[in-house]
Amino acid sequence: MLLYGFGGISPGKIITRLLEQYNKEHEEDIIEQKIQELTSTKQVVKKPPKSGVIVEGIDNCLVKFSRCCNPVPGDEIIGYITKGRGVSIHRTDCVNMQELLKDDNRIIDVRWYNQETKGTYNVDIEVLSNDRTGLLGDVLKEITGLKINIMGVNTKTSKDRIATIDITIEVENTDQLNKVIKAIRKVDSVYEVNRKK
Fold it and tell me: What is the pLDDT of residues 104-126, one digit of tens each?
């Protein structure tokens, strides 16, 4: 672009005119760059689900853990689509699964986000033992020694002096649960420890 000056054009007007011409020539480059930015596929990093469970084919789904079997990371799980309450998560060995499988069009694939999912899950365990003084204290000492939170305890003793202790604990995964069960089995007089189904 040529500009002829006869003294009637101020330097400011020349600069303005040059900037207008420059912007006009480079506007197409900017537009092309913007189009490229918009059309380039940006990888969307999905946040881990709050529940720690991925429901196959559905994002942002309400997930509830069934109380009948209390699944924890490490368990094999299956989803059941409830009426109006999202997806109920059950262990595959849950006592209610036979009934749920009858309505197989409501069964959905689910999986743990990963086995290291952080969070705590309630688990019910049953301890069978010959009754003796200090039994409950010894069992609870083993659990708290592993830094496990105890949510509830219920005990009863039969006429035959067999003590049944039902304990609800909070664990992060099946590994932690197995450590608790192993520790309780070492308690004197305890002869059976089971996770309730």
Answer: 788 888 988 865 557 888 999 99
Q: What is the rounded CA–CA span in Å between residue 93 and residue 70?
A: 11
The count of C-alpha atoms lying within 13 angstroms of the C-alpha of 16, restricted to the half-sphere facing its C-beta, is 5
| Helix (H) or strand (E) run with residue 152 in it | strand 149-157
Give kind and range of the element (H or E) at residue 80: strand 77-81
Closest CA to 107 of 76, 79, 68, 65: 79
Under DSSP, the state recorded for 104 is: G
- Cα-Cα-Cα-Cα torsion 164, 69, 152, 192, nearest 10 degrees, comes to 30
Q: Does residue 45 register a pLDDT over 50?
A: no
Q: In this structure, which amino acid lies at residue 98?
A: Q
Token pair of 136, please? 């409950």
175 close to 74: Cβ distance less than 8 angstroms? yes
Q: Hunting for tokens 């049953």 — which residue is that?
A: 126
CA distance 43 to 192: 51
